[in-house]
């Protein structure tokens, strides 16, 4: 065992190794580690912020949806009202139309009946004349008995 | 081993490969193997860490970067626990001590005859592969640390502050008279402490690793010098099994020791450096 120049050599090598570590290794790697730490911290902060923003946006969206729901209800109500109004209108229109048609039908029927009566009256008078002819065995001159016939027609 | 002599075997293993720069001078003798293996371990350390530092990413780290970051984080935590001052030197110094000393110690886990045997095959007579079993190497590092401690003692405390601490502690006199009386004992104690620091730092590492290496050699002696016919007998097989089991147990235990010694060397260096920064006395 000899203590000597090897010790000095080792001291120099030791100092060189420490200097290299000091200059090229330690700050570089520690710097990267600190940078990553900062990156992660920033990321976490950003995610917190994003969460808050998301919540805000959700609340906003909920507000908008609620408002829209209110509007939709209003629209539906007014539409219902309108529909009912239209239905009522249609109903009353239909009733009026029905009544109008009924009235015209009644008038027509009356007219028809009158016409039929008139026809009937004429035919009755002819029939009466024919019956009278047969009874009298004589021809009845319609001109002569026109007054008589007219009275008859009136009676019928 | 053709000699078969246990003493010769161990002595051979404990001899450094030396180169005398000045004929007959013990001081000017270089332990070539120690220097070469410290340089190899230094290159491994600086190469691996430098490679990682060159390709460092602050995003998702690679596996090697993860490993290096784990070590750096560990060292950084230890340094921050003990050393509460601003310094660009102390943490990198702690890292290089920890990893480099660990690598030097790790050479002890390589089978004790492997590298020296290979060396002998190519004509190198002596080779000690564990640099930290050479006092020159451990003292080289501990003196380096202590030089830095002294430098900080002078620059951080100032020559007057350092002198006050040197003569005024650990015994503090209540008045000037007592202070002068106590200056002598204080100086004596501080001198002992100043010398003891680097010596104990270097000797602790050396002693642990030297003893560990010696035990590996003693375990290797179990089957040393016996011929094949003896090793294949019952007694020989028992010896082989005994050597294997003891070697395995000691190697497993030694993993703890080499890490612990590297760690202790680092921690004590940081503690001494922290003391040299402490101006609060």
Give an overview of the whole structure.
Chain A has 156 residues and is mostly helical. Helices cover 91% and strands 0% of the residues of chain A. Chain A is rod-shaped. With 281 residues, chain B is an all-alpha fold. Chain B has one domain (6-277). In chain B, 72% of the residues lie in helices and 2% in strands. Chain B has helices at residues 6-13, 32-54, 63-82, 90-106, 114-121, 135-168, 176-220, 228-231, 234-277, and strands at 18-20, 29-31. Chain B is globular. In chain B, 31% of the residues are buried. The A-B interface holds A 1-11, 13-15, 17-18, 20-22, 24-33, 35-36, 39 and B 18, 21, 26-31, 34-35, 38-39, 42, 45-46, 49-50, 52-54, 56-59, 61, 65, 68-69, 72-73, 76, 88-89, 91-93, 95-96, 100, 134-137, 139-141, 143-144, 147.
Largest sheet of chain A: none
Shape summary of chain B: globular
Give me the count of strands of chain A. 0
- In quaternary terms, these chains amount to heterodimer
Question: Are there runs of chain B of 5+ residues with pLDDT below 50, and where?
Answer: none
Radius of gyration of chain A: 60 Å
* Helix proportion of chain B: over 70%
Give the terminus-to-terminus CA distance of chain B: 60 Å
Indicate the low-confidence ranges of chain A by residue numbers: none
Overall pLDDT level of chain B:
87
Strand order of the largest sheet of chain B: 1-2
Structural class of chain B: mainly alpha
Instruction: Report the total helices of chain B.
Output: 9
For the largest interface, the chains and their residue counts are:
A-B, 32 and 49 residues
Could you give the topology of this structure?
The complex is a heterodimer of chains A (156) and B (281).
Chain A: H1 5-136, H2 146-155
Helix pairs in contact in A: 1-2
Chain B: H1 6-13, E1 18-20, E2 29-31, H2 32-54, H3 63-82, H4 90-106, H5 114-121, H6 135-168, H7 176-220, H8 228-231, H9 234-277
């Amino acid at each position: 065992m000899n203590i000597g120049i090897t010790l000095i050599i080792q001291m120099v090598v030791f100092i060189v190794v420490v200097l290299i570590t000091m200059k090229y290794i330690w700050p570089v790697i520690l710097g990267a580690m600190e940078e990553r730490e900062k990156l992660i911290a920033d990321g976490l902060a950003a995610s917190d912020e994003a969460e808050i923003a998301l919540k805000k946006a959700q609340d906003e969206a909920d507000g908008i949806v609620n408002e829209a729901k209110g509007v939709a209800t209003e629209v539906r109500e007014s539409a219902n009202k309108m529909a009912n109004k239209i239905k009522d209108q249609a109903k009353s229109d239909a009733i009026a139309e029905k009544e109008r048609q009924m009235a015209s039908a009644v008038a027509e029927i009356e007219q028809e009946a009158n016409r039929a009566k008139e026809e009937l009256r004429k035919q009755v008078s002819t029939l009466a004349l024919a019956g009278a002819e047969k009874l009298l065995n004589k021809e009845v001159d319609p001109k002569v008995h026109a007054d008589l016939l007219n009275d008859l027609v009136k009676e019928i | 081993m053709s000699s078969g002599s246990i003493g010769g075997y161990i002595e051979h293993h404990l001899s450094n490969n030396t180169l005398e720069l000045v004929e007959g001078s013990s001081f000017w003798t270089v332990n070539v193997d120690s220097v070469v293996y410290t340089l190899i371990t230094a290159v491994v350390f600086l190469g691996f860490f430098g490679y990682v530092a060159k390709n460092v990413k602050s995003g998702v780290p690679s596996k090697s970067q993860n490993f290096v970051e784990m070590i750096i984080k560990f060292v950084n935590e230890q340094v921050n626990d003990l050393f509460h001052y601003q310094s660009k030197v102390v943490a990198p110094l702690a890292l290089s001590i920890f990893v480099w000393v660990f690598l030097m110690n790790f050479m002890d886990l390589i089978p004790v005859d492997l590298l020296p045997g290979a060396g002998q095959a190519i004509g190198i007579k002596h080779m000690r592969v564990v640099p930290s079993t050479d006092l020159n190497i451990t003292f080289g590092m501990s003196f380096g640390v202590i030089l830095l401690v002294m430098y900080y003692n002078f620059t951080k405390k100032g020559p007057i502050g350092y002198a006050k601490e040197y003569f005024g502690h650990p015994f503090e006199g209540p008045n000037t008279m007592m202070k002068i009386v106590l200056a002598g004992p204080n100086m004596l104690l501080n001198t002992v402490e100043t010398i003891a620091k680097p010596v104990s730092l270097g000797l602790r590492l050396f002693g642990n690793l030297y003893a560990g290496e010696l035990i590996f050699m003693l375990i290797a002696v179990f089957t040393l010098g016996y011929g094949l016919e003896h090793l294949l007998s019952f007694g020989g097989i028992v010896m082989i099994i005994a050597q294997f089991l003891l070697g395995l147990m000691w190697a497993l235990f030694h993993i703890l020791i080499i890490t612990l010694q590297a760690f202790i060397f680092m921690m004590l260096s940081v503690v001494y450096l922290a003391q040299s920064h402490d101006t609060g006395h």
